[in-house]
Amino acid sequence: MVNDRKTVYVNDHAISIFIWAEVQHCVNAYDSDLYLKVRDGEAEIVDEAGGRIGWGGYAGDGQHLYVRLVNRQAP
Predict the structure, then answer these.
(1) Whole-angstrom Cα distance, residue 8 to residue 5?
(2) CA dist., res. 18 & res. 31, Å (int)
(3) Which of 10, 61, 17, 8 lies closest to 34 in space, CA to CA?
(4) What is the pLDDT of residue 35?
(5) Contact (Cβ atoms closer than 8 angstroms) between residue 44 and residue 70
(6) Tens digits of pLDDT across the chain (75 residues)
(7) What fold is seen in the domain 2-69?
(8) Which residue from 47, 54, 40 is spatially nearest to 10, judged by alpha carbons?
(9) pLDDT of the residue at 13
(10) What is the pTM of this model?
(11) Would you say 38 and 44 are in contact if contact means Cβ atoms under 8 Å apart?
């Protein structure tokens, strides 16, 4: 059904996903390799303002999410 989906933008790419989807589901639907990088701490999810957001939260219809790689320095 049309009413059981929402549109979330991941890296400015529209993803049509079920309304119950969390941030992590949206990233995984966009790119499973990026999802794994977030899971492994190699990338993070941020909002339009650049603020980091958790991946277990609810993704709102029309929300923009961005995945960026994390620069880790060797100890």
Answers:
(1) 10
(2) 16
(3) 10
(4) 96
(5) yes
(6) 568 999 999 999 999 999 999 999 999 999 999 999 999 999 999 999 999 999 899 999 999 999 999 987 655
(7) Ubiquitin-like (UB roll) (3.10.20)
(8) 47
(9) 98
(10) 0.87
(11) yes
- Which amino acid, 27? V
Q: Which amino acid is at 73?
A: Q
Q: How far is the C-alpha of 45 from the C-alpha of 26, rounded, in Å? A: 11
Q: If DSSP codes are grouped into helix, strand and coil, which group holds residue 7?
A: strand
**Phi and psi at residue 53, in whole multiples of 5°?**
-125, 150
Q: What are phi and psi of 40, to 5 degrees?
A: -90, 5
Using an 8 Å Cβ cutoff, are 8 and 17 in contact? yes
DSSP labels, 22-61? BHHHHHHHH-HHHHHHHHTTSEEEE-TTS-B--TTSBPPT
Would you state the structure tokens that stand for residue 46, as one six-digit string? 């941020």
